[in-house]
Amino acid sequence: MSRPKLEVADIFRAHGPAYRHEHAGHLNLPQLKVMSAIEACRTAALGGHVAACTKCGHQHVAYNSCRNRHCPKCQGAASRDWMQARIEDLLPVEYFHVVFTLPAQIADIAHQNKAAVYGLLFKASAETLLTIAADPKHLGARIGMTSVLHTWGSAMTHHPHAHVIVPGGGLSPDGTRWIASRPGFFLPVKVLSRLYRRLFIEGLVRLHKAGKLAFFGDLSKLADPDTFQSHLSPLRKVDWVVYAKPPFGGPEAVLAYLSRYTHRVAISNHRLISADTRTVAFRWKDYRIKRGDRMKVMRLPTSEFIRRFLTHVLPSGFHRIRHTGFLANGIRRNRIEKIRCLINTEREPDQTTGKDGRADADEQGLNRKCPRCGGAMRIIETFTRGQTPKSRAPPWGDAA
Predict the structure, then answer these.
(1) 347-378 as b/e, with b when 16 or more CB fall inside 10 Å?
(2) What is the 3-state secondary structure (H, E, C) of 268-310?
(3) Which tens digit of pLDDT belongs to each residue from 15-64?
(4) 101-124 burial, b if ≥16 CB within 10 A, otherwise e?
(5) Greatest alpha-carbon span in the chain
(6) What's residue 364's pLDDT?
(7) Phi, psi at 141, each rounded to 5°
(8) The whole model's pTM is what?
(9) Are the C-beta atoms of residues 143 and 129 closer than 8 Å to each other?
(10) What are the C-alpha distances in Å from 374 to residues 54, 55, 368, 371, 393?
């Protein structure tokens, strides 16, 4: 994919200082750090290296990336590393994709209490799947899952939801058998929806009673317990949206899907069209359109575009990818080996990459081809933050 002509970093560098000045005192520290990281990403401010061609002497300066999890440019490498680690966890079974959403009234509370409510979204959705799957009336097995939090819609509005990828089956209660789900069907979504609604509301009430929720502006009245209960009352009677997408074609399709979803940010650079002091234009998908072309162009005031982007900055230390059940971090390796034995299948080790699929800056420089002649590029200089690379001949001398 070619490099986009416009990037979020360009918008932040050009209009970020004015936005910070205009909203001084209203931006939290994680948001300020994200803005600074994206503005500095792949610039001299973070240092870098100089690589030279061993044939023609052509030199290329590469600047270090910020590696911030909210930066659109830094997610490719992070996603590849994460996916390589997950290859060993794949099972030769059908995989299912279940999505848990929140009503708008809860999303508003989540916006002011991100860590608490997003954490509850993870907990309630996982407990729902574990409980229903363990019920003998449904699957009667102990399952595992990987959950990924997204907080945005295509227009960058606040729309928190959890994508959950679940292998189609689980361990029997005594751990001696693998119980496979029915082909093409995992668990009934209506049953999931009702339990999820109850567990989430109960958890939210506990958070309120424990004083772990804060309310500001139009929501400040919800600090009162009676008002809070009245706010939740209608939500106990409506259906909460939980839906299951068609099962994946196989483990490889799961990897392809996860590589697109695990390290997404609110908007990719390739969706940006134009930006100036007044407006930012970008492509978005209108899911209300059931047939035909869903792609549209949205134009937002530049300050509103920045505000929407920063809405999706997660609290420091908050994990947006979580593993539960037999895929939990502490027990995953042993459980996967046991399950493979139970289903009589052994997965061949992956041969498509080297040691672990990762490449540090030096390796990238060694593997890079010269854009002029195709010769091998070698790193001849590294420089730290704020330093300027020196122009010099490569150690093997000038090309003929």
Answers:
(1) eeeeeeeeeeeebeeeeebeebebeeeebebb
(2) CHHHEEEECCCEEEEEEECCCCCCCCCEEEEEEEHHHHHHHHH
(3) 999 999 999 999 999 999 999 999 999 998 988 889 998 888 888 888 89
(4) bbbeebbbbbebbbebbbbbbbbb
(5) 83
(6) 44
(7) -145, 160
(8) 0.86
(9) yes
(10) 10, 9, 9, 6, 19
